[in-house]
Amino acid sequence: MDRIGLINRIMESTEQIYTGRHLLDIDGFEREGRINYRERLADAMELFNDAQLLADNDLALLIQSELAFITQELQFCASDDKETSSSLKQAIQSFDDALSALQVVEQPEIYRGADLTYPHQKKYRYKDVPRDSLHIACMAHHTRLGNILRAPGINMAEKALLTKRRSNLKTAQAVYLKKQKAILSNAQA
Asked: Smaller CB count within 10 Å for the chain: N or C?
């Protein structure tokens, strides 16, 4: 599947998950809503699996998949739900910053210099490399999704998707860590 197709399908899945939830509350449309909701959760799960499998070769796709999902969630967020809206906006900004960090790490000569701008104290490092915006975005969103997972009333299919998305964040960090270590170890050699 091509990158744009995957991102578009994630956005469509998010929209249809929202539509399914909405139909569950309308008399006479509960069955259609339930079917729509479950099928789109399954689609999203498959798409996030695909993005995770491609992460070693296309880490940006994994980050953009999550970014597309949360951007769509913000689109369907109730206007008076300020707390959720604020959290999603913060996550979107964090992932935009993470994509910038990914662009820099793809340029070893620049990234080696960027490493020098990070203190070597533990709180500024992640496994001996800079704790930069990609790591920060993944850790913060991992926590955000974990908080959602602890909320009562979420069905198991949606919890499975949340768990998959959390797993993808760990994959993103692991792949990014490999990139960072490869660049920085070559600088020391």
From this structure: C
